[in-house]
Write a structure and sequence with these properties.
CATH class of the largest domain: Alpha Beta
Largest sheet: 6 strands, antiparallel
CATH architecture of the largest domain: 2-Layer Sandwich
Number of domains: 2
Helix content: 25-40%
Distance between the termini: 36 Å
Order of helices and strands: EEEEHHEEHHEEEEE
Length: about 180
């Protein structure tokens, strides 16, 4: 099912995951593979905090479009229709760090240190852009199998829906 620009549309593929407000599918444009976060606005409209939830989605989109770091999931495109908000992101195959630890158990010290350094670098970068993630947890750290080496996982921070932009010591977003 195509979406996006008519001259270079994306094709929607299988479901990769589901969250509280969105589902994530694999998608492609030509030979390139991506992930797309699909937010059904009709479903959100039935919720009492509709305005707040839509604002969170738009905030995530606008913040991610301007972030460029090797340990942050890159946003490639945003499309909005009357019924959906679609966020096209880099496809990060490897799953959540939470699932990895739940399946494989405790990480070795070197591997844990390697992951921690990457997360710290990503957090340092977003803080340098006056952004606070506010939902950093194992479920929002994705394993990049394409960049990983044996015993050393490469990771990317994802899900900026709860993030805040900080200006002059005060938060611009309200909760």
């Amino acid at each position: 099912q195509p979406f996006g620009c008519t001259d270079a549309p994306y094709t929607l593929h299988e479901l990769l995951g589901r969250g509280a407000t969105a589902r994530v599918h694999r998608c492609s444009r030509g030979a390139e593979q991506f992930a797309v976060k699909v937010v059904e606005l009709g479903h959100l409209r039935m919720q009492t905090q509709y305005g707040h939830l839509v604002k969170m989605m738009h905030r995530e989109a606008s913040l991610l479009m301007n972030l460029r770091h090797s340990n942050i999931v890159q946003m490639r495109n945003v499309f909005e229709t009357p019924s959906q908000l679609l966020l096209v992101l880099d496809l990060v195959e490897g799953g959540e760090l939470f699932d990895h630890i739940a399946t494989k158990g405790r990480m070795k010290d070197d591997e844990a240190r390697h992951v921690f350094v990457q997360v710290a670098e990503a957090v340092g970068y977003i803080h340098s852009k006056d952004i606070v993630h506010r939902d950093l947890k194992l479920e929002n750290i994705l394993i990049d199998v394409a960049a990983s080496r044996p015993g050393l996982l490469a990771v990317k921070v994802s899900d900026f829906g709860h993030s805040k932009l900080i200006r002059d010591g005060y938060t611009c977003a309200r909760t």
